[in-house]
Specification:
Layout lengths: L12 E6 L19 H8 L1 H22 L1 H12 L9 H11 L3 E6 L9 H8 L4 E6 L6 H7 L5 E8 L1 H6 L3 H13 L4 E7 L7 H10 L4 E5 L2 E3 L2 E3 L5 H7 L8 H8 L5 E2 L5 E4 L4 E3 L7 E4 L3 E2 L6 E2 L9 H4 L1 H8 L1
Parallel strand pairs: 1-2, 1-10, 2-3, 3-4, 4-5, 5-6
Antiparallel strand pairs: 7-8, 9-14, 10-11, 11-12, 12-13
Helix pairs in contact: 1-2, 2-3
Bound molecules: iron/sulfur cluster (2 copies).
One iron/sulfur cluster (SF4) binds next to helix 12.
Length: 331
């Protein structure tokens, strides 16, 4: 996976922020963190892999339970993961925290649906005075018009318009998605339409590709990460499915898929110059390693070393998703 072109990036560190777990859609394959979906999560990640994840995080959990008591740890963990749409971002505290690191950040907002956060556009405006954002959104929000009018497209590195075709059809929101996509594109945002390559869709790929093409949208399919009919994906895609979905920009073959999501023993910059953030603002190494790197509303402190991935399967390999930042970390 190291055949990408070397490029300069204008930021030193990346925070992937699940800014809310709440969403206006309800896709069957959704893997947004939610305590009620914990069993589904174990099922999707594979029970053996989940057991390893639990054991890697167990010592910290026991230590915390000993210090704070198990009920408090349970309440805090639940609060960290629970959908929270109504809470606004504390913008002054956030900017103070970012400034104190003396780094330039890429802040990627994901969810849930980020536009459900009440002051989301104000937060983007404040962040992009000095830093950069990227955005994962289902592009159904009426707020997108005001986002386009407020935010400078040059400071938004990428907008991934997550395209959940069946769910949008069911809720009659397909037209809204298309309108918002076209508006963002016209305003100069680097927007892409990424659809989950759910095995269920494999017979309709060409139909949807053509439909969206006619509307001026090129769909990219991204691998489904989860279980379907007792098989774990992405490793269970057949050669024919891979060809049909034509995953872009990567992975393009079964070997690429395995290299991308099966990371055991490979070096990773998670926690070094990349971290994930939960709706509460708490930040940690990555979604599977619960090692704190602080809180975006108080203090962020990265670790001094890269790590070797301890897990067989990772659904969100941070080193692969930003290869240039990974290279920077290796230097
Ligand atoms: S749009 Fe995304 S966050 Fe919302 S339900 Fe669908 S997959 Fe989950
Ligand atoms: S590949 Fe990186 S991000 Fe994924 S689990 Fe391993 S250490 Fe975490």
């Amino acid at each position: 996976m190291n055949n990408h072109k070397k490029k300069e990036i204008p930021y030193d560190a990346w925070l992937l922020w699940t800014v809310t777990n709440a969403c206006n859609l309800n896709c069957p394959y959704c893997n947004a963190s939610n305590p009620e979906k914990i069993l589904k999560k174990f099922y999707d990640l594979g029970f053996l892999n989940s057991a390893i994840i639990a054991s890697v995080n167990l010592s910290k959990l026991l230590e915390q339970s000993f210090q704070k008591g198990p009920f408090r740890v349970y309440r805090e963990t639940k609060a960290k993961l629970t959908p929270e749409a109504g809470t606004a971002i504390d913008i002054p505290a956030l900017i103070r925290t970012l400034d104190a690191t003396q780094k330039i950040f890429k802040i990627s907002f994901t969810g849930g649906e980020p536009f459900l956060v009440p002051n989301f556009i104000d937060a983007c405006e404040a962040i992009t005075k000095k830093h950069y954002t990227t955005l994962f959104s289902n592009l159904t929000s009426p707020q997108i018009k005001s986002f386009c009018e407020t935010i400078d497209p040059r400071s938004v590195l990428e907008i991934c318009g997550s395209l959940h075709i069946k769910e949008l059809e069911k809720r009659r929101l397909l037209e809204r998605y298309i309108e918002n996509f076209i508006l963002l594109k016209a305003k100069g945002f680097n927007v892409s339409a990424q659809a989950v390559a759910h095995p269920d869709l494999s017979g309709d790929v060409e139909k949807y590709r053509l439909y969206f093409k006619e509307k001026g949208i090129d769909i990219v399919f991204v691998p489904f990460r989860g279980r379907y009919h007792w098989k774990q994906y992405p490793k269970s895609y057949t050669g024919q499915e891979i060809e049909r979905f034509g995953f872009g920009p990567f992975p393009k073959s079964h070997t690429d898929i395995m290299n991308c999501f099966y990371r055991k023993g490979k070096m990773c910059n998670a926690g070094f110059n990349v971290g994930v953030v939960f709706p509460s603002g708490e930040a940690q190494t990555c979604f599977l390693i619960d090692q704190s790197i602080g809180n975006v509303f108080t203090k962020i402190e990265f670790h001094n070393n890269l790590i070797k991935c301890p897990f067989k399967y990772c659904s969100c390999p941070l080193n692969i998703y930003d290869p240039t930042l990974f290279e920077k970390a290796c230097q």
